C-alpha cells in the first residue's frame, strides 16, 4: 500500500537526499531534481523552510517512491518518481496544484520543471492545459575530453576555500556576480549557512582573487560519490572582471579536482 504524507524538514532530509541519488540516471537525465540541487536549496538564505511541510512524499512501505517539492518558494514544482511508479504522476500533479501553487492576484500559479525524457509528466501536464514557457539546456562535460587551458591574467590568483575563506569577500563576489547591485548587504550569516550542507566541499570550491585582493570569481562544485559526477553550483564573476576567461579557469580547476577524486 502506498501512503502519502508531508515532508518533515529535519527528519526527512537525508531520506529524500538518498532517494534522489538512487533515482537519478545520468545517462537518461530522468529528472531535474538532484541531491545537490535539493541540498543547495536547503542551505540558501532565500529558501522558504517554513513551508516545506507542503512537500509531498509517497512511500511504499518504508521505501520512498515519489516526491513533489519546490526549490526556493511555492509557485514552482519539481517531481521525482521511482521507476515503476509512474502511475502516481497524475496524483502528484494534483497534489502539487493544491499544495505547492502560489496565489497571485487571486489566481493560483504553478510552474512545473521537467526534462525532455520525462514524457509521461509532460503528457499529463499538456492534458491539463499547461504550456511550455521556458527552456534551458542541461550541459554535461565528459572527462574524456581535453580541458580548456587558459592562464590567469597578470596579478590574479586562484585558491580553494580550504586555503582561504573570507565570508565578506565571498558575499561581495556573489552579490555582484549575480547582478544584485554594486553594494552588497551585510547578510554574511546567509553565506555561512550556504557552507553548512553535509556535502559542501571547501576543497572543491574555487575562487579567483584580483590584484587588489578582492574575490572576483567563484565556482562551487559538488561531487556525487554514488553516481560519479560533479555538479556546478554556483558560478559567478563580478561584472568588471568578466571577459577575461576567469570563469573558464575556475571551472576547469574545479573539474580537475573532481576528476581526481572520482577515479
From TrEMBL:
<dbReference type="InterPro" id="IPR000182">
    <property type="entry name" value="GNAT_dom"/>
</dbReference>
<dbReference type="GO" id="GO:0016747">
    <property type="term" value="F:acyltransferase activity, transferring groups other than amino-acyl groups"/>
</dbReference>
<dbReference type="InterPro" id="IPR016181">
    <property type="entry name" value="Acyl_CoA_acyltransferase"/>
</dbReference>
<feature type="domain" description="N-acetyltransferase">
    <location>
        <begin position="157"/>
        <end position="263"/>
    </location>
</feature>
<protein>
    <recommendedName>
        <fullName>N-acetyltransferase domain-containing protein</fullName>
    </recommendedName>
</protein>
<dbReference type="Pfam" id="PF00583">
    <property type="entry name" value="Acetyltransf_1"/>
</dbReference>
